[in-house]
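Hello,

Our lab assistant flagged a job as stuck in the queue for most of the afternoon. It eventually completed. Since we weren't sure the result was trustworthy after the delay, we are filing this so someone can double-check. Below is the sequence as submitted and the structure that was eventually returned. Let us know if re-running is recommended.
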Amino acid sequence: MVKTKIVKLKKGREKGARIFLFTNKLIIFFWKKITVLFWRNMKKILIIVLLNIFTVVLFADSYIDSLKISLESSKGLKRNQILLQIANSYQQQYDPISIKYAKQAVTIAEKCCKDSVIGISYKKLADLLLTLESPRNSIQYYKKSISIFEIANNEDLLAKLYNNISIAFQRSDLPEESFEYSSKVLEIRKRTGTPLQIAKAKLTVGNSLISIQQPEEAIKIYSDVLDYFKKDRNYQIYVKTLTNLATCENMLSNYEVAINYLEKAHTVAVEQGMNNVLQSISYNLALSYSELKKYDKALKMYFEVLKIREKSGKVKDIAGALNGIGRAFQGKKEYNESLKYIKKSLDLSLKNNLDNLIVINYRMLGEIYKNLGENSLSSDYLLKYADSLPVYLEKVYTDRIGELQNNLKNQQTEAENKILKKESLINDLILWKQKILIYFFIISSFLLLISIIFINKRYHDKKRDGEILKKEKDKSEILLNNILPVKVVEDLQNRDLAKPILYSDFYEDVTILFTDFVNFTDFCTHLSPSNLISELNKIFTAFDEIIEKNHCERIKTIGDSYLAVCGMPEKNKDHVKNILTASKEILSYLKNRNMNLSDKSLSLDIRIGVHSGNVIGGIVGIRKFIYDVFGDSINTASRMETYSKSMKINVSENTYNLSKALFSFEERQEINVKGKGKMKMYFLEN
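-- returned structure --
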């Protein structure tokens, strides 16, 4: 019986092996047939593939062409819809012509369509203006669309409109309006949105808070977004939040914390393959490492940025990365390596007319050669820096004059070409037809008369252009005096070529004044935007008069905050006395204003902070440049204002020690100040 089972088992194995061999032979047979068919028809297959690719490439243009054909016979609502479809198609190709079709769609909608169609048309045009042309121009159309859908109470669409107009205001340097609309987005999303929509809305609000210089409030908002990430692992939002938190901490001078956030964002971006944000994060990390003098880490990030930018091929970005590498090597005092990269950056900048980088590279080369002891080369580059900076600053104001000169030159060239052609014709006539010499004389006389008229006109045009040039120069001087302190303007205009002008300096004895309104939010709710600006203008004008009267210098206003200094850019031995006197006068002015108001809801209280110390001052920016101040003393003055009380002048211990013989003070208990530790403060008695 056992033998019978063994025989059956062997037969089963043999049968299975035969089936396996037969199957293999069948597969090989069909594979050979398919291979032969493929090679025989390879040309046909390739042609079909190429035709498919060609069809895909041409599909977009064919689709637009078909829409344009339909447009010719369409009217009313249908015409509006086709125009919007064409605008959409061009938008996908990033073609600005899409704006033209969106404007036509708006015109049709306003004539014959319902409000909802008009609102959608306004939104489409605004979106295109925001992304392809001018954020400021998009605002008017967003407002029109919002007014329509607020009546219809379409909250989902309103949230999108509020979000986009917030971005438009932010890109147009109008941060207060940006914050107002981003807050509305968050209100709607909290009522009707998904957790993801709420998180995105909070990101928008946080960005607006950063733009109005409220990093502490922005940090609270971003913390909520991080809580959302714990539930839904959305890495795009997580990386954006970490990057924005780093920006906030940098604004608060917490550089180590900012770097920690950026390092986390960098790790996640690398792990998740988020190449679209990796360059920005790496560049910010490089800047932060350089700020803390961690140059080896900064170099690693700069080289990573350079590698990414070289792939993109954008020359300006590559030149900027090379400059950053040079700065890092300069910080390490490896001046020869620094020279190598700064020169590469300068070469690219000169070849591609990158004026801002040219100016920066000249200055850096001057500093590096000075450190290397090569004073001659250092002087050469610093002279180039001194020459190129004011030229670049005035470039904006001379563009129009350049256009006029180009037009004049073109007209002159055209006229000269005409004269040459006519003279050539006359010479031909002289050679071939001697008999018409008299006609030649007449024509020559006529041409001479035209030349005299042309030369006379050219003289008057040059004289007129000279007057225009003088007017434009006068305008630029007035504008510079309004933007910059008088001493800085004089330095720019009366520079000594033997000694390059530096547009930044260190000042030891300076007193800083910071003010901020206590109840400004309530104040805003009682006034329209135009009345609010008018009232602020009156108040800050009064502040300016007080500051100027006391020989101080107003630096800037930030929203409802006001910053002034004494002791810079011109030294003043009475800097403490002048600022404290001005502070008391500002307080007195506000008290009188509040007392004389008929509507007490419009009264304003103020906190004032004063600190004395060292300050760095200079010109910031290349295009929209301003004179600004920097340093730990500015942060301390800001802390004095923060820890002051309503209608009080809070001064630091430094200021108290310098002025206690001149003024009366009320000593306060030591206060634990964020980022500073315990500090003594004093109230100035009125």
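-- support follow-up --
The delay was a queue issue, not a problem with the job. The result is valid. DSSP finds 26 helices and ten strands in the chain. The radius of gyration is 36 Å.
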